[in-house]
Specification:
The complex is a heterodimer of chains A (about 240) and B (about 400). Chain A is mostly helical and about 240 residues long. Chain A is about 75% helix and about 0% strand. Chain B contains 15 helices and no strands. In chain B, helix 4 packs antiparallel against helix 5, helix 4 runs antiparallel to helix 6 and helix 9 runs antiparallel to helix 11. The chains are: A mainly alpha (about 240), B mainly alpha (about 400).
């Protein structure tokens, strides 16, 4: 506590990290709540907050498009569907679900195994353990600025390529490039903007084939759902006739 | 804005600047909703009065009764806060806040003038549509947790309606996105700069139709009459609002008015030029004297203030049109609401999407080309030249540093 206070007075806290921990704590806390609550609708509410906090984490990481996707698909779509399912199938007003002891053990076993695997995987990647990305980017920028300063004191002008290089380093040291959503769209239709320009280069094909397979699959599912819904009504009509 | 405040403070304390900026922006946005509700509730009373050949409020606060909303607010605050015995206490208390928070969150990414946006997102339009769909969750929670049949039926109707109307609404907002080639709302607004013929609604005849589909879907998605089945008072008492009173009820009401303002501002940005007025007063002066007016901070700020006025006027027209519809049309039945969505709005929007696509691809001239304007493809998202701006600032700083050190050396 005293250390925290000292850090606050020296203003050396990384506030980005603090907000990350708060959001992550909200996500984890409500995830635990989903598992422990008995009432289904309260569970759904906790799930929504959990998923929204996960979306907040993505926004914090600068992946705006993925964050908004998380809001749209998981928080918006799935949960509304979940509530429809709960409300249309519920026999009485407030359903409670008691989890049996055996289910708890089984769930903890499966969940714990998954968690163990994921934690181990996360610590296997050396870049994720301690990131020197920011320090390196700051250092690169500082050395380049020093170089430019020396050049200016000697009386030489800054050329356009040097100016572009400075702009690139500035971007790397501040935000990275969180806003480059267009490249995702280009990659989905088959152009990898981040993979170089030679056409024979590996990985340039993008994700056109998976994208097409997924969209055809969804179309088939939609047609199938419509067919099933209509077939049932036709059958009922035939029965009354 | 955050960087501006952070510049005042010593290094290491710049987080205070960002916090201050966040508070200022949150305060302004809350007031857009609160003052908007204040004004439009009064306007709704006056409009409905005039439509029904009455006067509406006339006494509270002067000749036009313009303090009527304040009187309503005081009445609501002093009401007893009731909760039914069968209600789920936690969810019943949380539901109004969920509804209001979703409505409020959408305002974060909504620009009010060129560059005046709390959270500059290059996927702003997508974010807005995603958040707009979350508001229904508060309504569902309210309906379920009230422990009353009327509430549950209202919530179910609302859920079905909002989920179905998301589809045509989504197709409609894709049309301006396709023409502009960006989801950044600031860029979409800036691309319509110039005379009113440059507004996107005059791009081709199909998008003109798309706007009316959008408006219908917007009215339905904010749950206003003739689509207000969720609170149909002739059948369901007050739908999901039946068991609510006082402050909690008014939070739902504020969320509803907030969404009305939101979809109207979105319509203004997507179809009616956003913060650009019908006659280009400021932008033509900036174009004529780029070195004087174009670079001058007070002139651009003044132009932006005029832009905020512009967009608020356009949004008010949209909101008042919604009131006009509400007090003119009878309420639809449930099956009519869904028929309207699936049999009319979706096919019309889909056909118009194809039409606009071919029109844009073939480059057929229309009203947009009457008055020459700047090329749309030249107006891009702001972050693209962020690096250049930072580099320019850095070089300026280096030059200043060298200049001061040289002066010191001369002395």
């Amino acid at each position: 506590m005293i250390g925290l206070l000292a850090a606050a007075t020296e203003a050396s806290i990384n506030w980005h990290t603090v907000i990350f921990y708060v959001t992550a704590l909200v996500a984890c806390g409500f995830a635990v709540l989903v598992a422990t609550t008995n009432n289904i609708v309260r569970m759904a509410f906790a799930l929504i907050v959990c998923l929204a906090a996960a979306s907040g984490l993505l926004f914090l990481a600068g992946a705006y498009f993925v964050g908004a996707m998380q809001l749209m698909i998981y928080v918006g779509g799935t949960v509304v569907l979940l509530i429809f399912g709960v409300m249309l199938t519920a026999q009485k007003a407030f359903i409670t679900m008691q989890t049996k002891g055996g289910d708890w053990i089984l769930g903890l076993l499966v969940g714990g195994t998954l968690l163990a695997i994921l934690v181990q995987l996360a610590f296997l990647v050396p870049q994720w353990q301690s990131s020197d990305y920011q320090a390196k980017a700051d250092m690169n920028l500082a050395t380049y600025v020093d170089k430019l300063e020396q050049q200016l004191t000697e009386g030489q002008e800054i050329t356009q390529p040097q100016r572009d290089e400075l702009a690139r380093l500035e971007i790397l040291a501040t935000d990275g490039m969180p806003q480059r959503t267009g490249e995702i769209g280009l990659a989905l239709v088959g152009v990898r903007a981040d993979q170089g320009t030679r056409p024979d280069e590996k990985g340039l094909a993008g994700y056109l084939l998976p994208f097409e397979i997924v969209s055809i699959h969804l179309l088939v599912v939609l047609v199938g759902a419509a067919f099933l819904a209509r077939a049932k009504r036709h059958h009922a009509g035939g029965a009354t006739r | 804005m955050g960087e501006y405040f952070a510049g005042w403070l010593p290094s290491g304390w710049d987080f205070l600047g960002y916090t201050l900026a966040a508070f200022v922006q949150a305060f302004l946005l809350v007031n857009v909703i609160a003052l908007g509700a204040f004004v439009f509730i009064w306007a709704e009373r006056k409009v409905s009065g005039r439509i029904q050949d009455r006067l509406g409020p006339t006494r509270t606060g002067g000749a036009f009764g313009w303090l009527q909303s304040l009187a309503d607010g005081i009445k609501l605050l002093s009401k007893e806060d009731l909760m039914p015995k069968d209600a789920d206490p936690i969810l019943f208390r949380i539901a109004p806040y969920v509804s209001f928070a979703a409505s409020f969150a959408a305002f974060m990414a909504l620009p009010f003038a060129s560059g005046w946006v709390a959270l500059p997102l290059n996927i702003g339009l997508f974010f807005l549509i995603a958040v707009l769909g979350l508001e229904v969750f508060g309504v569902i929670l309210a309906g379920y947790s009230s422990g009353s049949k009327w509430s549950l039926f209202g919530a179910m109707r609302q859920a079905a309606q909002v989920v179905s109307y998301e589809v045509p609404l989504g197709i409609c907002v894709v049309v301006p996105l396709m023409i502009c080639g960006t989801m950044d709302l600031v860029a979409i607004g800036d691309q319509q700069r110039g005379w009113f013929t440059n507004w996107l609604i005059f791009h081709d005849p199909f998008i003109f139709v798309v706007f009316w589909v959008y408006f219908t879907c917007a009215v339905a998605s904010v749950n206003r009459a003739p689509f207000d089945l969720a609170e149909a008072e002739s059948e369901l008492v007050a739908g999901f609002l039946t068991e609510y009173s006082g402050m909690r009820w008014s939070l739902f009401f504020m969320a509803e008015y907030g969404s009305m303002i939101l979809v109207s501002i979105l319509a203004a940005i997507l179809f009616f030029g956003g913060w650009n007025g019908p006659i280009p007063v400021f932008s033509s002066m900036m174009d004529a004297y780029p070195n004087y007016f174009g670079n001058c901070w007070w002139f651009t700020t003044f132009a932006n203030v005029a832009g905020v006025l512009n967009i608020l006027i356009k949004a008010s027209v949209g909101v008042i049109a919604m009131m006009w519809i509400r007090w003119t049309f009878p309420r639809l039945r449930v099956d009519q609401v869904i028929t309207m969505c699936l049999k009319y709005c979706v096919p019309i929007a889909a056909v118009c999407l194809l039409g606009v696509m071919f029109w844009t691809a073939l480059g057929v001239p229309f009203l947009n080309d009457l008055v020459p304007a700047q090329d749309r493809s030249l107006v891009r998202e702001e972050w693209l030249d962020e690096g250049d701006r930072r580099a320019d600032r850095r070089i300026e700083m280096i030059e200043q540093k060298i200049a001061t050190s040289q002066e010191g050396g001369v002395e």
